[in-house]
């Protein structure tokens, strides 16, 4: 249901914080994705690629939020039933496959953080992440939104301190790298690729759309979402440039830079920030599934999904993704087709949205009553 009176924060900033929460994950937070996609273009090429990706994020978020508001579709099931009709299930299959890989990666990363900070067995760090995700999603939208809000403040604060420390310790190296002529090859393709496989975050956070009071709210929130999600990455990338090109070969660029800062306490704080980023990313991804289940539950039972139901869905997803998938090789199987999954998601989400979806918006074909009809429950029908 739409929010009765969304606050200014909920209407304009929260969507960007939520989008950032889903896309930041482990690779962005550690700098590994930044090294993979943006450092090959050199310092200035990397900046151009990131600005291009940011523009793509904003454009797709604007279209997604406006469509969701106009059609009153506040979970991905309702959204794609309206956009794709009978083919909406193709998106769900691709999303579930991608979710298995993401949660398995998040679990492994949290295990490594626990081992590095406290000397725990990796399993204990993974369990901490699972418990945290399950706890937040079981209490529904408000709990998840509070997580997005406060983790965002913590994350932006840590990155701000990191940039100040980096500039004070090796700012001269950064200036030299940006002043020197460097090749700028492939930045456009890399920027588009990075934007493409992360743009799924815009549809994952659709419960946030219930706060919009008008299409203007949706468009402004989408426009802001790109910069809010990319700002920490831009700041981190500038710091990474100090040790270009050798930092591109580091498995964890964040650790590489933190070791050169020589501040063990801040190193620990940064690791905790990465864990918090994993927590909000995993929570956002699982919450999208919970909202999809609740929409089917409400259609069938006429009431909200209870907390124990949310907890059960989250527990099944987390256990299957983090433990069973890794044990039986599903992660390797799906990860081998990861790029293909990304292209599939672009084909069933971004392309239809920016063509058929925008045409529907312009023609005024998305009034909420019409949008609700395709997802009405039919006895014996699929939910």
Summarize the structure.
This protein has helices at residues 8-30, 32-37, 42-71, 76-84, 88-118, 122-138, 141-179, 187-198, 201-204, 215-240, 253-261, 264-301, 307-327, 330-335, 338-363, 368-372. The protein is mainly alpha-helical. Helix 3 packs parallel to helix 8 (187-198), helix 5 (88-118) packs across helix 6 and helix 5 packs across helix 13.
Describe the structure.
The structure is a single chain. With 383 residues, the protein is mainly α. It has a single domain (16-361), classed as Amino acid/polyamine transporter I, CATH 1.20.1740.10. Helices cover 79% and strands 0% of the residues. The chain is built from 16 helices and no strands. It has helices at 8-30, 32-37, 42-71, 76-84, 88-118, 122-138, 141-179, 187-198, 201-204, 215-240, 253-261, 264-301, 307-327, 330-335, 338-363, 368-372. Helix 12 (264-301) crosses helix 13 (307-327). The two termini are 18 Å apart.
Encode the helix/strand succession as letters: HHHHHHHHHHHHHHHH
CATH homologous superfamily label: Amino acid/polyamine transporter I
Spans of at least 5 consecutive residues with low confidence = 369-383
How widely separated are the two ends?
Answer: 18 Å
Structural class: mainly alpha
Taken from the alpha-carbon principal axes, the silhouette is globular
Please report which band the strand proportion falls in: under 5%, 5-15%, 15-25%, 25-35%, 35-45% or over 45%: under 5%
Multimerization state: single chain
Q: Mean pLDDT, rounded to whole units?
A: 89
- Give the name of the CATH architecture: Up-down Bundle
Structurally, how many domains make up the residues?
1
Q: Whole-number radius of gyration?
A: 21 Å
- Total strands: the figure is 0
How many DSSP helices?
A: 16
